[in-house]
Amino acid sequence: MIGRLIDGRYQVRSRIARGGMATVYLATDLRLERRVAIKIMHGHLADDDTFKTRFVQEARSAARLAHPNVVNVFDQGQDSDMAYMVMEYLPGITLRDLLKDYGKLTPEQTVDIVTAVLGGLAAAHKAGIVHRDLKPENVLLADDGRIKLGDFGLARAASANTATGQALLGTIAYLSPELVTRGVADARSDIYALGIMMYEMLTGEQPFVGEAPMQIAYQHANDSVPAPSLKVPGLPRELDELVLWASARDPEDRPRDAGAMLEQLLAVTAGMPGAVDPNATAATTVLPGPLAQTMVLGGGALANGVDDFAGSDFGGSEAETQILGARHRTGPVDAAEADSAVLLRGKASTRKRRGYWLFAAIVLLAGLAAGTGWYFGSGPGSRASVPDVSGQSVDVATAAIAQAGLQPADATASCTHPSIKPDLVASTDPAIGTALPRGSTVTLCVSTGPAIIGVPAVVGLPEADARAELAPLFTLAEASDVRFTDEQPAGSVIAVLDADGNPVAETAYERSTMSLVVSAGPVPNVAGMGVDEATETLTQAGLEVETTDPVFDSNVPDGAVISASPQGDGPVRPGSTIVLTVSKGPDLIAIPDVVGMSLQDAIQTLKDAGFEVSHNFPEALIVLAKAVSTDPPAGELLERGSSVFVKAQVTF
């Protein structure tokens, strides 16, 4: 299928996924030059009108919906005996993949996904469409953050809510009680399935499990879904209530449709613990701690008085000088002068110390400025390494390059890559890890998938040589298909097959899967051998042996092999069965004695014994003749089918 052009428009590039009804491929729409996902119904279902109807119904149902959370359907048609549907291509994973990787999700993640699913489901319900197969496998999480609902294969009009025969086509783990008991589905059945999905996202497991599908169906019909917080304590009460509301056994107790549930979800989650009101003011402001006393007092304690304060490094201010001067002027004049001199010397010393500190601070700041300028101007800080953005979407890669201090180019380039999916970044120019001046431009090279390359001609080469030529270009199966053949010597390559078992063409996608067919040499020729010898020869060659009942053969001695044939159709491989046809020699019988019989009776007797008969008498007079002898004579052993001559004459 890969490489096939469908309907003259869609070029199939690679397989994305395979389901029970169809296979999804990545293709290129040659008319609009865009990548699409093309869903092709399995060939063995093409003659089943029921499956064909479901396939066409899926396309029509999804095409009626135009919503950002529903996978868009672009086209649907028939190419030869192949029914197909063209959808938008969303590189990413499903919700099932996410649950497998993480077990359970946080309440915030659950709310985000359920909000998106309800948006798409509300659009479907508004259009009168019931999905009927809601499950994590049908919720697509794109690499760019989009969440979409797909696979409307079981969708029906909301008015056609009575199903017969196919009521249980949806996955049993998400079937509503009314579908199990009465085969009836409406919009509230989709809500039930979503409630089960919410429980699974919050707890990491489904509420009802069992060894057989009927056990699970019985629980859906007779048991109530427990609150998720019983399994995971601490979950918000609002989410418990939403899950129990959506998964109520009685449809009348559930939301009437996805729109009603979406409104309630948005309303209750706004009041959940941890929800942020953008207009609210922070309730608590973190203030710096109190200053240490040593910083405030310069080595003394506040209770030590003004004298200690004046003796500190903070004691040189003008206000302090006035206070101290006023206190000392209460004494004698000489004492006042002496105090004034001491005070002046103290002020000079303080200014000197301040000058030293100021100079040191200026030098330090200048050094820091120079160092910073060098670091970001010509030192290590002036350069940035191109981050590893391979395998990321263009938007994510662009943000990472900008965050690294580089400038993403306005346009992207295209390049092939054997393993990175199309539309994801394959490489950069300059290469990942290159150190560049900050602000340099980096161009993203976006993958177009694997390149189409030539396949080396390896038929006829020894297996080891063929693998050496193909392994650097393609993915080879470890085991080769060994077959008996006289086309090539033992150990040589007979053919190269693709993943579907077909011979490869002259070109193929790089790293595509291939396998080798290798010769085991011809089947040993055992014709003419005795049975034991032939059996041993074939067994040593790795073949099984069976024999048929012996048959007469005049050319092969009794007990020797006449022929050896493979059992069944298809290639002969080690372990295949060879059937031996064994001779029991020629079929010899005695010539009966017909002398004295009428020629007519003699002829008939010899023919009945198994011989061809000739005679010497005219046919017109044969009734008058009698046999007088035979050649060979009576009693001699002769091989069945041999000719016997009867000599006759007229007797009276």
Automatic annotation (TrEMBL):
Alphabetized InterPro entries for the sequence: Kinase-like_dom_sf, PASTA_dom, Prot_kinase_dom, Ser/Thr_kinase_AS
Ranges annotated as spanning the membrane: 355-376
Reactions the enzyme catalyzes: L-threonyl-[protein] + ATP = O-phospho-L-threonyl-[protein] + ADP + H(+); L-seryl-[protein] + ATP = O-phospho-L-seryl-[protein] + ADP + H(+)
One example GO MF annotation: ATP binding
First-level EC class: transferase
Signal peptide (residue range): none
Pfam families (UniProt xref): PASTA, Pkinase
Keywords from the named record: ATP-binding, Kinase, Membrane, Nucleotide-binding, Serine/threonine-protein kinase, Transferase, Transmembrane, Transmembrane helix
CDD domains per record: PASTA_pknB, STKc_PknB_like
PROSITE patterns recorded: PASTA (PS51178), PROTEIN_KINASE_DOM (PS50011), PROTEIN_KINASE_ST (PS00108)
UniProt keyword ATP-binding present: yes
Ranges for domain PASTA: 381-448, 517-584, 585-650
ATP-binding keyword on record: yes
Catalytic activity, EC: 2.7.11.1
Record domain Protein kinase: where: 10-266
Gene Ontology annotations of biological process type: negative regulation of fatty acid biosynthetic process
Top-rank taxon: Bacteria
Protein name: non-specific serine/threonine protein kinase
Organism of derivation: Microterricola viridarii
